[in-house]
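Supplementary notes for students who missed Thursday's class. We covered one full example, reproduced here. Read the sequence, then the structure, then the short commentary at the end.
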Amino acid sequence: IHERLVGSEMCIRDRSCEMKSKNINQLVLAGVLCGIGIVVPILMPKIVIGPMSFTLASHVAIFIAMFISPKLAAVVCLGTTLGFFMTTPVIIALRAASHICFALLGAVLIRKIPEIIEKPLPSTVFNGGLAFVHALAEVAVVSPFFLAGSIFKPEQLADGYVMSVLVLVGVGTFLHSLIDYTVSIMLWKPVRAALPSLAELRE
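Structure (token representation):
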């Protein structure tokens, strides 16, 4: 009986150590991805049209977090949003906040159907669905600013809601998301192969 009790205690201790190690690794990874998510939009080339800006690879950190777990996706979205609130105009920060919509949805789907990002056709359909949710969320954020007549220039207001919001923001975000997801998948596969420990962080 004593040996069984000792063995049980050792198992509990091992599990506790494993959980602590996993939590520390998640915290470190979240910090790294938040940093990347804030720095990349500053360094990478961008297209600026009025109050909107589209930066290549600006969503890569969020997509990578999404591939790993819902918890990490949420933390990275919140971390990057906080960084944007401190360094950018409010409309950009709010657009960043809206990323939690597609990131959490995608992370939950990946958790339930891991192969959705492994095979070309399901991954392409998944990419399109996420891009649509992403675009819808950003249109919802930008619409009140347009309707209030703030931030947008007079000529953009004159172009109307369809052109200035649905086309510029909606279609622009949709295409931007498609590209960044593709870049993220291309990076994720070699990174996952090089760092097998990432598999342990997936919930």
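Commentary. The chain has eight helices and two strands. The first strand starts at residue 46 and ends at 49. If anything here is unclear, bring it to office hours.
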